[in-house]
Specification:
By secondary structure, this protein is α/β, with parallel strands linked by helices. It is 25% helix and 10% strand. A four-stranded parallel β-sheet has the order 1-2-3-4, covered by helices on one side.
Length: 163
């Protein structure tokens, strides 16, 4: 809160905060102007929607953190469309013409004139993974598709409270 009162620049944070309870110290104190949850690590679609709704109760906008695949992007798009105080969706793939090739059944490019259309079809709105394209992208030094992800089974954390 001291930081938000000391500067004129709106404060935005939250990409490393897990669950809506992690924001409870920030919202009532108006320590931030914009919350910035990462749907892929905050608890998923429903939890991120709850974070946005809680932020709205305090008059705080939600700009979603996102740096991932079109699968995660579409989860974010659906969450954003359902959240009244949604402000913006961060995206690091705008300049990668191959990014949209990872899935099938979406417009290519997915982002047109700065916007992503919310699909009107079941699920997240795409048909499936483009496995042929994925196989073409495999590093010959590390062949394999959909390999085990045991390295993610280890608990670890950053040494920071908020990013």
């Amino acid at each position: 809160m001291q930081l938000s009162q000391a500067v004129d620049t709106p404060i935005c944070t939250g990409e490393d905060i897990y669950l809506k309870e992690g924001f409870l110290d920030l919202f009532p104190k108006r320590a931030i102007a914009v919350d910035h949850p990462d749907l892929a690590t905050s608890g998923g679609i429903l939890e991120t929607k709850k974070i946005g709704d809680l932020a709205q109760d305090y008059g705080i906008a939600m700009a979603m953190h996102f740096a991932g695949s079109p699968v995660s992007c579409m989860a974010n798009v659906h969450c954003a469309a359902a959240t009244e105080n949604f402000l913006a969706l961060e995206n690091h793939s705008v300049d990668d013409p191959e990014w949209s090739n990872l899935v099938t059944g979406l417009p290519n490019p997915l982002i047109q004139d700065g916007y992503i259309q919310v699909p009107d079809k079941p699920g997240l709105g795409f048909d499936g993974l483009n496995e042929e394209y994925l196989r073409e992208q495999i590093d010959p030094e590390r062949p394999g598709v959909f390999e085990p992800t045991d390295s993610w089974d280890v608990d670890r954390s950053n040494d920071r409270l908020w990013s």
